[in-house]
């Protein structure tokens, strides 16, 4: 055996922003798990509480499923894997009084609790915010629902798709109503869920800063519909300033021209001219410097008013040459533009690869699980990929031991079906 001073030095793990923060995660599907995965990526210890037997609904939302090392499908859906890394899983029957007692014990040692039960459901189990905060006054409780804890819709179940419709997003997404293919269209990913998860993480961090300064926890009331209304951003401001509801514009922009897709001779490209200087550069490349001098087109406000006259002329010019010719010239002149990639092309893009936007992690069912990486780039406290998305109840014994259960008590809880 070598002496200690002969052993290679261990590589210390970099510090993490949320190291030491314990999050009790009673959420499922997407908005809540997206929030807690963000916290976990930043170093929080996230304990994911799931139903014995089935677990998070998204475990079965497939195909596709994770394949094992022999190429066979496992029971782990890709949907679930995308929102649950860096967590530990314990399966607890919340309807069982003994299970409720376990959750209260976990909550007493937690900094944050995230849940997305229907309004009032946790009170039936004695696990509502008021009860838990009476035992742990510094606890931050974040409740995520479709419509919030107040208002006439508070008892409705909330789903991203329905909220995209109710909250106005589908009225501004998709092709114009007067063109082929026009009509309501949802966004291709569950943006109301994802935005709510991110807003929830921001609110939790703010509440933790207050708690650290004062010792006082608080409740956070997050709603998908609220978030959907907020994320309308400039379109919501357009309506409030004018009283006129904007409609669908397809790939065009409500407030900027030219800012949309155009067809080149061999495919589509994006042109995103954001100011008048960029428009003048574009006009030079397009061989139409006169457009930049035309009082109908010289300023963005004029281009917006005369888009139906200008856009067809731009389309005719851009269709005369291949898209790579255009993109090369536009990029050299700093005229904002871009290709339109599918996901295979996006992940193969050299910029995406250089930014390390995929990560490979060992998983109990396969040697290498590839996941989309976190976009958070912190210079001192970087994101760390510590745990693959857990199997259902993978850490049940470990976590019960941490709250003081001995081996015999754990065996009894497993035998009685309180935990799984």
From TrEMBL:
Superkingdom of source: Bacteria
Keywords carried by this UniProt record: Transferase
Gene3D superfamilies: Crotonobetainyl-coa:carnitine coa-transferase, domain 1 (3.40.50.10540), formyl-coa transferase, domain 3 (3.30.1540.10)
Xref: Pfam families: CoA_transf_3
InterPro entries: CoA-transferase_III_domain, CoA-Trfase_fam_III, CoA-Trfase_III_dom3_sf, CoA-Trfase_III_dom_1_sf
Keyword hit for ATP-binding: no
Name of the protein: CaiB/BaiF CoA-transferase family protein
Species per Swiss-Prot/TrEMBL record: Roseateles agri
């Amino acid at each position: 055996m070598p002496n200690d001073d002969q052993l290679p030095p261990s590589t210390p793990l970099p510090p993490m922003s949320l190291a030491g923060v314990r999050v009790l995660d009673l959420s499922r599907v997407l908005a809540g798990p997206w929030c807690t995965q963000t916290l976990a990526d930043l170093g929080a210890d996230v304990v994911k509480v799931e139903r014995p037997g089935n677990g998070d609904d998204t475990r079965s939302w497939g195909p596709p499923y994770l394949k094992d090392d022999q190429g066979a499908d496992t029971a782990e859906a890709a949907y679930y894997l995308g929102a649950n890394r860096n967590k530990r899983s314990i399966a607890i029957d919340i309807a069982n009084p003994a299970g409720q007692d376990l959750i209260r014990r976990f909550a007493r040692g937690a900094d944050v609790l995230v849940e997305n039960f229907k309004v009032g459901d946790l009170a039936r189990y004695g696990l509502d915010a008021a009860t838990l905060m009476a035992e742990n006054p510094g606890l931050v409780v974040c409740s995520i629902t479709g419509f919030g804890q107040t208002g006439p819709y508070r008892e409705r179940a909330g789903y991203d798709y329905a909220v995209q419709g109710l909250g106005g997003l589908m009225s501004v997404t998709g092709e114009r109503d007067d063109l082929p293919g026009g009509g309501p269209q949802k966004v291709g990913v569950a943006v109301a869920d994802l935005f709510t998860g991110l807003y929830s993480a921001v609110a939790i961090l703010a509440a933790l800063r207050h708690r650290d300064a004062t010792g006082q926890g608080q409740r956070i009331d997050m709603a998908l519909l609220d978030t959907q209304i907020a994320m309308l951003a400039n379109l919501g401001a357009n309506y409030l300033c004018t009283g006129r509801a904007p409609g669908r514009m397809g790939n065009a922009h409500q407030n900027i021209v030219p800012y949309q897709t155009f067809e080149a001779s061999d495919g589509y490209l994006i042109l995103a001219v954001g100011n008048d200087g960029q428009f003048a550069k574009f006009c030079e490349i397009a061989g139409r410097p006169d457009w930049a001098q035309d009082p109908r087109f010289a300023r963005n406000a004029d281009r917006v008013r005369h888009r139906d006259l200008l856009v067809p002329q731009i389309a005719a010019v851009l269709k005369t040459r291949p898209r790579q010719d255009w993109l090369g010239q536009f990029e050299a002149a700093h005229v904002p533009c871009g290709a339109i990639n599918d996901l295979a092309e996006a992940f193969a893009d050299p910029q995406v690869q250089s930014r390390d936007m995929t990560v490979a992690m060992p998983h109990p069912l396969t040697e290498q699980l590839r996941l989309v990486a976190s976009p958070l780039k912190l210079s001192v406290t970087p994101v760390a990929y510590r745990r693959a998305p857990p199997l259902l109840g993978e850490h049940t014994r470990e976590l019960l031991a941490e709250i003081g259960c001995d081996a015999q008590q754990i065996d009894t809880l497993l035998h009685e079906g309180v935990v799984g």
